């Protein structure tokens, strides 16, 4: 009889310990955050993602009740920061500030990258980049129809147009490949290590075309006649560009509409209470009117806050869209 009682006590004790161990992660997750939170920007300070992140940290910190900082970790098209974050615990203290460029396209373009897009979860899409078609002032075209006709003539002469990007597999590379494919006009891709040297060469006429995000310096270069803005590619646009034609206004390019966003992502498997806390803090920060001005300063359009379910759908749709583009232009990992 005594043995049976002791056995019951042991089993009860073990069951209690098991329940406590299961509840422990939930307990700390519900108390999140208990220390500093980092927004990891996979580029040096000063870029669009960095500016957006710095516009978020103040309000996020107030909501979370903890200091939130920006941590810049550049290199390898954002993959170094992404891989490092995946090596950390899935606890929400490291939040990746990224876009489809780093998390969807880079793994398909760079054989050295081993992570998958699905290793991350989108907490909130914060802003949309303004994508545009820019050419040097000296290029004898003023709209997309003229650009296509001019590119076709140059190709027949054996001198195809060149277009720049920030690297193989970037969205800017794929947009150029897609433009070449849908128009049937061959063009030459010229990859750069970053946006600054590419824009310098575009202004100087060393390359003929850039399809990509409008940076903070682009409007000034257009205004002073150093560059021509032919059209807007993205559906979302700032009021500044309301009168600029859309690429899709050109009949042969009616479906040529692409978006590129920046958002906050965490490692897949981060506890739901932590994700919810980060989502609430980001959503509150996005309601600050100052953030819209911050985004506009780097030619970004502030996104409408989404629910977590909507964010999950946006990320899944982006993965499908960008993988389809990569497949259509036969992108190969190098």
UniProtKB/TrEMBL annotation:
Residues 1-29 form the signal peptide. It holds the Pfam family TctC. InterPro entries: BUG, Bug_dom1, TAT_signal. SUPFAM superfamilies: Periplasmic binding protein-like II (SSF53850). The keyword Signal applies. Keywords: Signal. The keyword Signal applies. Gene3D superfamilies: Bordetella uptake gene, domain 1, Periplasmic binding protein-like II. It comes from the Bacteria. PANTHER family: BLR1237 PROTEIN, TRICARBOXYLATE-BINDING PROTEIN. Belongs to the UPF0065 (bug) family. This is Bug family tripartite tricarboxylate transporter substrate binding protein.
